[in-house]
Specification:
With about 500 residues, this protein is an alpha/beta fold. The protein has 22 helices and 16 strands. The model has no long low-confidence stretch (mean pLDDT about 95). The structure holds nicotinamide-adenine-dinucleotide. One of its GO terms (molecular function) is (3S)-3-hydroxyacyl-CoA dehydrogenase (NAD+) activity.
Length: about 500
């Protein structure tokens, strides 16, 4: 049978494990006209799932997203089962029980005995390998990963993951079924973190590295991530939302799954915070404190009054913006001894840029060249004169931007986060763990970035991203900053980051 035909003919799906994920999966399946058998080790979990899904349909009908008749019909398609191994016929089983290899293996071994050969098996595991789960089956070809995201009805992405022995036509069949459910399928490989959770390490591990280097406070990094990079949520807010009891083990499992690749290195910071119970929103304290569920954030300090000191910069556009609001600027070859010197290096620290250009270090501050009209990052190094730094802060604030002051260092903050996001996805593309198109689609939909990471790297410029990484690599000696071959080749050859180009298979 063709994959599309199979997907169209799916009439009954069994969802086992009716917790957070199982409920969402059952909700979208029944809404798409499929009969859904619901089963769980705890019968009360099934009862509450049926009631909750019914309420969700009712709410959607109230908002006009479905008709009252559709809501009633979908509710009628929910069939509670008292035994997950009930021999009643079904086309597909989606397993969403707790994340434990033995539990999942035992369940599938029982299902294989209970259900006919034609029933397809799918697991919603987020961190176990599909291939490991399939070893419980006499016939491992009938199982694949179908990785939904939380909350399922709103997160429209699903990773379809073939295991090492999955039947060749099964991923296509499941891909068509995901489309029938109104979600967007992407193909991922059965590798640690699959696609999205692997790609997401770029932001999180780099934010923790910045914190470990004491370059900036969590709220400063979050503000830069939101205002400059355009992320919906900064990395520390995100960790507080997902909670460290989920994030930290996920980081450890992806890192060990890749046998300690430094670009995926977790942080001792999250391990100790996890042990201390500072998990995030759900425990009332994480990187932020929460009162009645509301994040407590210190207000940003008010900028001082402008001093009238002139500004000299290597960035003409920055001087234009300052001149426009009446700040005195110097446009000569060299700054006068009274001038604030604002340097905007890519990859390098302002201090090292000052040394290379033989500029007086005490007059120099850095401005992240990725700053924008909303927010700019000002960096200070140990030799910066304090009054000069305050004058720089005042002058930048007078242009109407919010100013975040951080310690000077190679790559500053926005450049480092962006370069890490782009490079991580370039590694994914390089290893052919997903197509460039799927990488961009998956990350945009599941992580809410303003662009897919490869498109984003393309917009910023592959050469620029490469410069940032090479500077970080040489300044720190840390192999986590080694640029991926995907990035180096495309930057050197002038090819787009988000296209594969000619592959060996195209030639043969
Ligand atoms: N929560 C997420 O954000 C998320 C996202 C993607 C994937 N996942 C994966 O989905 C699966 C379920 O996660 P969840 O967050 O819905 O968990 P959950 O704790 O909310 O629900 C798990 C359910 O499984 C039931 N269960 C446990 N053992 C069982 C068994 N042997 N047979 C039948 N039912 C059993 C429990 O009673 C519970 O109702 C896990 O594999 C998880 O890794 C979770």
């Amino acid at each position: 049978m063709l994959p599309g035909e199979w997907a169209e003919r799916v009439n009954t799906v069994r969802v086992i494990g009716t917790g957070v994920m199982g409920r969402g999966i059952a909700q979208i399946c029944a809404a798409a006209g499929i009969t859904v058998q619901l089963a769980d080790a705890r019968h009360e979990a099934v009862e509450s799932a049926v009631a909750e899904i019914g309420r969700m349909y009712h709410k959607l009908a109230g908002k006009g997203r479905m008709s009252a008749e559709q809501a009633e019909a979908a509710t009628g398609r929910l069939v509670p089962l008292s035994d997950p191994l009930d021999p009643a016929d079904c086309d597909l089983v989606v397993e969403a029980v707790r994340e434990d290899l033995d539990t999942k293996r035992e369940l599938f071994a029982g299902l294989e005995r209970a259900l006919p050969q034609r029933t397809v098996f799918a697991t919603n595991t987020s961190s176990l390998q599909v291939t490991s789960i399939a070893t419980a089956l006499q016939d491992p070809s009938r199982l694949a990963g179908l990785h939904f995201f939380n909350p399922v009805p709103l997160m429209r992405l699903v990773e379809v993951i073939p295991g090492a022995r999955t039947a060749a036509d099964l991923p296509d069949a499941l891909t068509e079924l995901v489309r029938r459910l109104g979600h967007t399928p992407v193909r991922a490989t059965d590798t640690p973190g699959f696609l999205v959770n692997h790609a997401g390490r770029g932001l999180i591990t780099e934010a923790l590295q910045i914190l470990a280097e004491d370059l900036a406070l969590p709220e400063d990094v979050d503000r830069i991530a939101r205002d400059v990079l355009g992320l919906r949520m900064g990395p520390f807010e995100l960790m507080d939302l997902t909670a460290l009891d989920v994030t930290h083990p996920a980081m450890e499992s992806i890192f060990s799954g890749y046998y300690g690749d430094p670009r995926l290195r977790p942080s001792p910071i999250t391990r100790s915070r996890l042990e201390a119970g500072l998990l995030g929103r759900k425990t009332g304290e994480g990187f932020y404190r929460y009162e009645d569920g509301v994040k407590q954030e210190r207000p940003e300090p008010a900028a001082p009054e402008p001093t009238g000191r002139p500004v000299w910069s290597d960035d003409a556009a920055l001087l234009d913006a300052l001149a426009e609001v009446g700040s005195p600027v110097e446009r000569g070859e060299e700054p006068s001894s009274a001038a604030i010197v604002l340097l905007t290096p890519h990859g390098h620290s302002a201090a090292s840029a000052a040394l290379s250009a033989r500029l007086p270090a005490q007059q120099v501050c850095g401005v992240d060249p990725l700053s924008n009209a909303t927010r700019c990052t000002l960096t200070v190094h140990p030799a910066t004169d304090r009054d000069m730094a305050r004058a720089a802060w005042a002058a930048l604030a007078a242009t109407g931007r919010a100013v975040t002051i951080v310690r000077d260092g190679p790559g500053m903050i926005a450049q480092r986060l962006l370069a890490s996001i782009v490079n991580t996805s370039c590694f994914i593309a390089e290893q052919r763990l997903a197509t460039p198109e799927d990488i961009d689609t998956a990350v945009r939909l599941a992580l809410g970035y303003p662009s897919g990471p490869l498109e984003w790297g393309q917009q910023v410029g592959p050469r620029r991203v490469l410069t940032i990484l090479r500077s970080l690599h040489s300044a720190t000696g840390d192999p986590r900053y080694r640029p991926s071959r995907w990035l180096v080749e495309r930057a050197d050859l002038g090819l787009p980051l988000n296209e594969t180009g000619t592959a060996v298979a195209d030639v043969l």
